[in-house]
Amino acid sequence: MILKSRDDTPINVEVSGNGKPIVLLHGGFQDLKSYDRLVHSFPEGYMLIQIDTRGHGKSGYGDFHLTFDVLGKDIEDVIRQLEINQFSIVGFSDGANIALYTAAVLRNQVKSLVLISPNLEIQGLKTPMKVAIALLKLILKPLRSNLLFLHLYDKISLMAHNSVLLRNCVPDVKARVLIISSQFDVIHKSHIIEIAKLIPNSSAIFLKKLGHNMLDQGVIHDIIIQFESENVDH
Asked: Are 149 and 143 contacting, i.e. CB atoms less than 8 angstroms apart?
C-alpha cells in the first residue's frame, strides 16, 4: 500500500500477519524486500511492517534532503496512519539509525528495538568505508545538477553523517535494545560497544565470520525472533 508523509511524499508499505507489530527498516540503497526472508521465517502472532524509506524502492523522494529526522518523521506518519499504538522496530545500517531516532521520539510507543550495524557518526566507520564514501562524494559532487546523481549523493551523504542528532537521541530511548554487529562489519567494534553503553537497557552481540550485509543469514533471523518473543508481554 502507498501511504503519504506529512509533506505528501508517497511511502510504500507492506503489511503481513496479525499480532504484535514490528516495523522493519532496511539499509541505504536497499528496499523493503531485503527483509523478505526474515518475514517468511517469523512464526504467527506478529504483524510485520516493511517500509521503503523515502527515496528507496517504490517510495517517493519529496523535496527534502535525506536526513534521519526527515526519514524518522516518515516512520511516525506511517505508524499514525496504520493506527498502531505500541510496536517494535528492527533496523539495519541506515535503517538502524532511523530506528534509533524513532525510538527516542516515540519513546512511549516503541517497546523493543533491534539495531543491526548502527553508527552514531562517521567516526564509527572503519577506514576503508570512510575512504570509499569520501571518493564517491568527490565523484558525484560536480554532477549534482542531474537529479539522479543528486539523489545518489544524498544517500551517500546520509551514510557519512556527522549530525549530533542521533547521539542526542540516545538518552531518550526507553525500549529494550539489542545491538547486533559482526566480525567483518564496516562499523568499529569499539563504536558498537560505546552505543550499547550509552543506550539504557541495551546489550550487544558480535557474530563471527559475517560481514556488514548479514540480513539474509539464518542466525540473524533466529536471534531477532528469539529477542522479539521475549518481549511479547513487555
From this structure: yes
CA–CA distance, 138 with 218 (Å, rounded to integer): 37
User: Residue-wise over 79-94: b if at least 16 C-beta within 10 A, else e?
Assistant: beebeeeebbbbbbbb
Q: At 209, which helix (H) or strand (E)?
A: strand 202-211
Tens of pLDDT, residues 197-225: 999 899 999 999 999 999 888 999 999 99
φ and ψ at 68, to 5 degrees? Answer: -70, -25
Give 77-134 pLDDT, tens digit per residue. Answer: 999 999 999 999 999 999 999 999 999 999 999 999 999 999 999 999 999 999 999 9
Question: For residue 23, how many C-alpha atoms fall within 13 Å in the half-sphere facing its CB?
Answer: 35
Residue type, 185: D
With contact defined as beta carbons under 8 Å apart, do 29 and 57 qualify? Answer: no
Residue 64 identity: F
